[in-house]
């Protein structure tokens, strides 16, 4: 049978990006190859996100377009995976009769089984169970796309924290850590493929292994990866401030391969709101962690997530958030308007913030951070730094693009170096979203 075309669209977080890469691999065994244009596809797979209302709406509007396509191409197969598939389950297939199969967040490994049923029996199907295990597919030998210098590695799935705004524990299940020998083996295999930088993924990597008495700690896992020949850089995401241990903070001064960047979601700078969010730390404790990190690693870049318009957020709470943003001087932040989601506790809170108030706060926060980000980026002008070359710049294919250890994107001239090279550059100019580098002559 000749090759078949797969159009794979990923919504949402890096966890989904990793899962989509797995899907691509599993489907390669069925002779599917990726295409960029959905109209050429034999199979369209959407790896979905439902963490906020907006990405969910994007999935529905994409489905509307693919429905029209399926009318013209009746043999087109449409499948959905990820958080929205998990959230909606079987009723989704009833609502969207042109969708052929659904895979929950822990069932992606069953894609070929569902496609077999579709091929042989013409049967639409779903697999959405959420038990306390790691999806076995996550332990398959993993090979990244060719010529990649960086790769994600999932080290745990799910979350036990139940922040009152978050759907993750309901769509990704309770926290389960992958066995450390499997993780280390996967990273050794990636290093053998030429991968130089790995990013460890989990909803709360700081609590890695906490539920398994015989498992090593997250810091010990980092120590094990530090020993792997060929891996030059280690990153991880996401950290929960309440679980950021002194031992892990010290790792930033101790492990030479651990990059000087941490994404540490704050969510709100108001203690009152943090409490209602069930975050388990105060703004003072957060600021203390930031101080400790900067003491151990003065050049560390710190990014965060913030939610505005959480139910009951008053002007004074929002001002407290702005105040923390000024105090910390984040390198960058991701900010969102609160939205009700199925299952979450905050959906029951009656004191919702009007949409126009949330919008105004979001704009004010983003404007404030834009100024801070540019100021922080300007610090790099004139400095020399090491950049891992990741590929050609999207804006200008005559140029290279890569990242510093602090996770700043740097574009620089030339296309001679191999992807995966570590290049020393002088930072010539800083912009809002990237840096411009020049060769050191
Ligand atoms: S820590 Fe909170 S925000 Fe993060 S995934 Fe868990 S419940 Fe969601």
Explain what this protein looks like in three dimensions.
This protein has 441 residues and is α/β, with parallel strands linked by helices. 34% of the residues lie in helices and 22% in strands. The protein has helices at residues 14-28, 53-72, 83-88, 90-95, 111-121, 168-171, 180-192, 218-226, 246-254, 271-277, 283-296, 315-328, 355-378, and strands at 4-10, 32-34, 43-48, 77-82, 101-103, 125-127, 150-154, 156-157, 176-177, 197-201, 233-237, 261-263, 301-308, 332-337, 384-392, 399-404, 409-413, 422-430, 435-439. Strands 2-1-3-4-5-6 form a 6-stranded parallel sheet, sandwiched between helices. The chain has a 5-stranded mixed beta barrel with strand order 15-16-17-19-18. It has a 3-stranded parallel sheet with strand order 7-10-11, with helices on both faces. The chain is globular, with a radius of gyration of 22 Å.
List each distinct ligand once: iron/sulfur cluster
Radius of gyration: 22 Å
Q: What's the average pLDDT?
A: 93
> Going across the major beta sheet, what is the strand order?
2-1-3-4-5-6
Number of DSSP helical runs: 13
Query: Which stretches are poorly predicted, pLDDT < 50 over at least 5 residues?
Result: none
Approximate strand percentage: 15-25%
The SS-based structural class is: alpha/beta
Terminal Cα separation, in Å? 54 Å
- Principal-axis shape equals globular
Largest sheet: 6 strands, parallel
The helix fraction, in percent, is 25-40%
Task: Tell me the number of strands.
Answer: 19
